[in-house]
Each structure stands twice: as structure tokens, then as C-alpha cells.
Amino acid sequence: MRVGLLGGTFDPPHLGHLLIAEQSREQLELDEVWFLPAPNPPHKDGVATSPEQRLRLVEAAIADHDSFRISGIEFERNAKSYTVDTMKELKRRYPGHEFFFLLGADSLSNLDAWHDPEELYRLVRFGAVARPGSRYLIPEGARVTAVDMPQLELSSTDIRKRIERGRSIRYMVPEAVRRLIEEWRLYATGRS
Q1: Cα(6)–Cα(20) distance, rounded to whole angstroms?
Q2: Which letter, b or e, does each residue of 114-123 get, where b requires 16 or more Cβ atoms within 10 Å of its Cβ?
Q3: Within the chain, what is the greatest distance between any pair of CA atoms?
Q4: Is there a cis peptide before residue 12, judged by omega within 30 degrees of 0?
Q5: Are 159 and 172 in contact (CB under 8 A)?
Q6: Which of 30, 45, 71, 173 would suit a FRET pair with 10, their CA atoms being 20 to 30 Å apart?
Q7: Could you tell me which of 70, 88, 72 has the C-alpha nearest to residue 17?
């Protein structure tokens, strides 16, 4: 089975995440895409919501796609989780699977700075999402396949800021995610 892995904080998940997953699924001929929410991301000091809330938001975001799954593998660790550790465990559990770690092509330039990059390159292939015609450097040893993606300027940070200012996020996040954000009163200043 060919599986794409899309890791992130997903605070909140938005249509850009889903577009990356779908374009990667199609272009890399993946059987499934697994979303890997990070409860304690090593590169971020603070996250606006609890890990459980973000897990529920991702579940809501992908509920209507038969080939999208959520993996709580990173929730099994109490410490900060590194991609290489997650890959070791996934390879142990699913030895017959071929994994593609999906990321933005701009992230390739700092891939050598990730925790234990040589081992990571051995364990997984990368699907590098880029705008058509864009150029990027591939670190030596990394196995990378380009995934063309239409330009869509969405970020979780911008979505949180819009909510703080009382602005609409309709059509930026799946409707089920928008409803949960509203119901739980997430990201609005002075609310829990």
C-alpha cells in the first residue's frame, strides 16, 4: 500500500491541507493519505488549542473522504515528537507499506536540519508540494517527487487572526471545522 503522510499542528486544519492531500494522492498514486496531528510539535512553543481539540478538528475535516485517514501515532508519546521517530514506528507496524512524507517544497531547504535526517531519508520518500514551474534544492540522499499544486494562500495563523478580529473563515476551512470552531469558541480573543 502506498500511503502519504501529512503531518502538522493543524491549528486549525484548512482547505489548503486538504488540497495538498488530494493533489498528492492523485499525482503520487497513493492508496491513502494519513493525517498526523502533532500534539507537541518540536518546532513550536505554544499552540492555541489542545491536542484533543485539534484531533477532533482533523477528524471533522477529513470525514467525507474515503481515502483520508487520521493517525494518532504521535499522541502515543508524551514527549515532543520527531518525524524520524514516527517513521521508525510506522515502518515497524506496517512493514509492507511504502510511505511518502508530504511537505511544502520550500521545506526541502532545511530538511538537513531535521532530527536525524540521514535515517529519515532512508525510511521515507518525500512528496514535495510546489507551484507549477517552481524550483527547489533537494538535499543529498533525500528521495523526492514533485507534486504540482495550484496556488492557494491559506495558513492556520492567518485563519486564527481572522477569527480574533471577528472576520469570516467560511470557505477557508471545511464547514464541519468552522462549526466546531464556532461551537467551542476557539481562537477568539478573551474566549476559551
Answers
A1: 9
A2: beebeebbeb
A3: 48
A4: yes
A5: yes
A6: 30
A7: 70
Has residue 152 got a pLDDT over 70?
yes
User: Any residues with CB less than 8 A from the CB of 184 and at least 6 apart, and which?
Assistant: 53
- Please tell me what DSSP assigns to residue 89: H
Q: State which H helix or E strand residue 92 sits in.
A: helix 83-93
Give the global pTM: 0.92
Between CA 4 and CA 7 the distance in angstroms is 10
45 band by pLDDT with thresholds 50, 70 and 90: low
DSSP state of 42: T
3-state secondary structure 125-192: EEEEEECCCCCCCCCCCCCEEEEECCCCCCCHHHHHHHHHCCCCCECCECHHHHHHHHHHCCCCCCCC
| Cβ atoms 44, 37 nearer than 8 A | no
